[in-house]
């Protein structure tokens, strides 16, 4: 992104233009070796290209963050938050031991 956005002023030697067009640091290192007009133009162009690149990356990062957050919410919304009361495991009442056929045979006889 930076390399396509930076404009090296005319008259800058090829070697210095390559260093300046490679990175923001290269432009800052090259600038003192140029004339005042070339230096100002190069630094302004490098600063703008760098800022444009950072903004593009920030927008992409924000979009990915939003998509990831939406997916997490969609996939985990059925899980209750920590500390929340747990719902009962089953809505049907459990069968008590007294209701089973085996319990009939072991019931004590009534006392008269």
TrEMBL record:
Chain intervals for the UniProt region annotation (Disordered): 82-112
Biased composition annotated in UniProt, kind: Acidic residues: 92-102
Top-rank taxon: Bacteria
Keywords assigned by UniProt, alphabetized: Membrane, Transmembrane, Transmembrane helix
Residue spans crossing the bilayer: 53-74
Protein name according to UniProt: Uncharacterized protein
